Amino acid sequence: MNAKRMDDPGPKRQDSYQEFDASELYCPRCRQAVPVRQRLLLVLPEGDKFEYLCEYCSTSVGTKLARVTKPISLIV
Ligand SMILES: [Zn+2]
Questions:
Q1: Which of 2, 17, 24, 49 is placed for a possible disulfide with 42 were both Cys, Cβ 3.0 to 4.6 Å?
Q2: If we measure between CA atoms, which residue out of 24, 20, 70, 76 comes closest to residue 47?
Q3: What's the CA-to-centroid distance between 34 and ligand 1, angstroms?
Q4: What is the largest distance, in Å, between two alpha-carbon atoms of the chain?
Q5: pLDDT mean for each 10 residues of the chain (76 residues)
Q6: DSSP string covering 53-72, please?
Q7: Cα 15 to ligand 1 centroid, rounded to whole Å
């Protein structure tokens, strides 16, 4: 599974940064938008599942499935 990632042409960090629409999410416990930490929850065949945790109270404020977008490679 890791071998797939190595084929990625662009820097992964930049890609994932763009994917995350917000670095802050609403935390129901803090009752405000809070900075979040992401934690790898599951590694699925279709992508990695991340969980977002509130930086202050560590409440889970959301999950995200980072799809492994593999470019269609056609032999031309
Ligand atoms: Zn919180």
A1: 49
A2: 70
A3: 7
A4: 54
A5: 58 50 85 94 91 95 84 70
A6: EETTT--EEEEEEEE--PPP
A7: 27
